[in-house]
User: Which sequence fits this backbone?
């Protein structure tokens, strides 16, 4: 069975510093996709970044980058130059299959989340 | 801007009544949408897959007669919580896929049953 593990229930980071949020996963599938979402107190789930299991390069989206280490089954999120508005809950999620036509179901399995607090 | 819209964002209902939550894809068609439930300080748990033109697929342990899902068009899925009880109070959120590598969520709906 697929499983996502986020071992950091909460983290503090100083404004303008970088922070790494850990995520490890377990799957027997060769094809899968990994997502990171940000959930502020309002509840909405904001898509941040995606990494496919066959992608050779680590994904980057602005201040967000994903440190993908396939052999270790880890997909850590790195936020550079933290801002006060980055304070939120962060969820790592996995989908089986990397492409729609490759059999992806678009169902997501979520980790337990990491609450990030950015301090001024 | 939002690509998946959910309504209402907050709803209070009396115990024993039913409440409907809508999930719309705004500028794309979604043959499947997904409904999740989130308890306070917990992660999201998949409830069901909403299939356009056919029956929803429910995850194990989810009561299909209590959580009615209808996907009548390619842009709209509805979740109806029937005969609601206080233990149904939760945050409900839907998702849809626009491109294969981006799964978008609605704004979520906070349900309180009193």
Assistant:
């Amino acid at each position: 069975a697929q499983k996502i593990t986020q071992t950091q229930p909460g983290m503090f980071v100083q404004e303008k510093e970088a922070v790494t949020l850990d995520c490890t996963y377990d799957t027997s599938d060769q094809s899968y996709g990994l997502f990171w979402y940000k959930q502020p107190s309002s509840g909405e789930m904001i898509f941040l970044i995606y990494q496919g299991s066959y992608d050779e390069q680590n994904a980057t989206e602005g201040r967000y980058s994903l440190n993908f280490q396939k052999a270790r089954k880890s997909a850590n999120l790195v936020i550079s130059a933290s801002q006060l508005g980055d304070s939120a809950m962060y969820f790592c999620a996995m989908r089986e299959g990397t492409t729609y036509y490759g059999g992806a179901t678009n169902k997501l399995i979520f980790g337990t989340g990491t609450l990030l607090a950015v301090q001024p | 801007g939002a690509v998946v819209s959910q309504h209402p964002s907050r709803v209070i209902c009396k115990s024993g009544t039913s409440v409907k939550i809508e999930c719309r894809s705004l500028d794309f068609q979604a043959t499947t949408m997904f409904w999740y439930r989130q308890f306070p300080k917990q992660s999201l748990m998949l409830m069901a897959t909403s299939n356009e033109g056919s029956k929803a697929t429910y995850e194990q342990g989810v009561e299909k007669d209590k959580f009615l899902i209808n996907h009548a068009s390619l842009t709209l899925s509805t979740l109806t919580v029937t005969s609601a009880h206080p233990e149904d109070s939760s945050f409900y959120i839907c998702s849809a896929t626009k491109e294969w590598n981006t799964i978008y969520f609605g704004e979520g709906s906070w349900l309180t049953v009193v």
